[in-house]
Structures are given as structure tokens and as C-alpha cells.
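Re: that chain you flagged

S.,

Sorry for the slow reply, it's been a week of failed gels. I finally had a moment to sit down with the sequence you sent. For the record, here it is as I used it:
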Amino acid sequence: MQSVSPPLFTRLALATALFTFGLIIFGAVVRVTDSGLGCGSHWPLCNGTIFPPLDNLTAWIEWLHRLFAVLIGLLGIGMLAVALHAYRRQSKAVLNITLAAAGLFVLQSALGAVVVVLELPPTFVTLHLGTAMLLLGALLAAGVWASYRPVGAHKGDFIAALTYVTAALSLVIILTGALVRGSGATLACTDWPLCNGQVFPFGQGQLATIHMVHRFAVLALGISLAMLVWYVFKNRDREARLLAGLALVVYLGQAGVGALYVLSSAAPLWGAAHVGLAAATWGLLVVLSAMEWMNGREATDNVSEQRWNPQSEVTS
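Prediction finished late last night. Pasting the C-alpha cells below so you have them in one place:
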């Protein structure tokens, strides 16, 4: 893991991740403006044409979302070409995560087509967003593994495990949030933090239950993230502290915006901001997880070297 990263790959990974983050936010704009079928049920064409008519705003929103995806594909091809050249022998981990990102991009594009052709079924809308988040995570991990150098290598411990669990929880709340939107449960609870005056609104119907399950998942993430910040600030270096602290700040912003989204009767601005902050929280936790993984691997490699060297001295 000590190989030097080609600067081009790191820049490509960062650029592709930023474009993917932009795609996720733009996808949220598509949903909150009800532009998912702005191009009808046609894909890759838009209502049977390459360019939508100038006076059709929803079609242009959907068309620009697709253009974002094309740009990510082009950047991803360049990133994959560099990875195949630079990391085929140098670092299998970077190459493998780049290949995984390429596969996720293909899957995400296919799900996007299915979502349009089938006219926005909630299950596929959720899978589409979830795959986009996994793609963002894979791109960020590739960039970290290519450029980050462990400073204080340490074995995988409770903090590393808590980091992975917290990152997984951040993905869970994104998926449950997508399900809330896709199932029409956004305003099943019209107040906050209670749901129509109740903590457990399970007798209010399926939509209220879906909505409140999402809130419980958000609460679980908050508890896990607060614990993570506490342990990281006590036991990790400055970079890890910065990432964990920033993730907590962004999470609090995300929760606040989620409340505003409900209290504003689902104003589109708050809906798009809510998804963007959720993606940012996920991204920060992925970067922290990738660093923890590298630190743990570095510590394992050091132990292996210490075990091997005495044996080599004896045999020599």
C-alpha cells in the first residue's frame, strides 16, 4: 500500500466523485419537481427526440440529469484506463474498487432506464438512488486508497468497526428516505419530531409507519455518529477528527432540513437540500472508513514483516 499514486488518477477520482455528488443532488431536484417523467417513458431519447422543446422545463430538468450521467461515464472511462495502466500490478485494491465503480455505474444507468420505462416504481427509484450512493462511495474509496498514506497505523479495533457501522447506517437512512418519497409517505406525518402527535404511529396506516421508520433510522445514526465522534476525538489523529466532526455537523444540518421539509409541506428546496446533505454525510463517513481500512491494513502488514524478518535472519 506504499506505492505512489499517479496524480492524474487522484484528480480523476475526485472529479468523478464530485460529478456523482452533483448527479445525486440533481436527481433530488428531478424528484421534488416531479420531473422524473419529463421525457415521458422514453430512454435514452426524450419524448422521442434528442433535445427536448425549449418550453418544457420538466423535460429539460430530466434531460440535464441524463447529461450529468453521460459526463460521469466519460470521466469514469478515463479513470478506469488510468487504473488499468497504473495499478494492475501496483495496487490491486485501487484497481478492484475502480472496477467495482465501473460496474456500479453501468447498473445505475440501467436502473435509471428501468425507472423511466416503468414510470417511477418506488422500489426501483430506491434502488437507483442506493446504487448512486454506492458509486459515490466507491469513487471516494478509490481516491483515498490511491492517495492517503497511513500516519499512525493501528489494528482494526472498536473505533474502526463503529466507523463502518455508522457509514452503513447513513446509507440505510438514505434508502429509507427514498422509500418515503417513492411511496408517497412524505407528508404522512405533518408535524416533527412526533408523527401526528404520536411517537409510534403504527395505527395510522402504512405510510405513517414508513415515514416514522425513517425517522427512527435517522435517530439511530445520530447516536452512532455521536459515539464515533467521541471515540475518534480521544484516539485518532487530526484528519480523522476533522472528518468525524464535519460528518456530525452535516448530519445535524441534514436532520434540521428534514424537519423543515415536513413543516414546509414538502417545499422542493428543502427536499433537494435534504438529499444533498445526506449524500455529504455518507461521503464523509466513507472517506473515514477508507482511511480506517488502510490504517488497519498497514498495521497488519507491519506485523507480518516483523514476523518474517526474524525468520529471515535465522535462515541467513
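What I noticed first: The chain has two domains: 1-147, 149-316.

Talk soon,
D.
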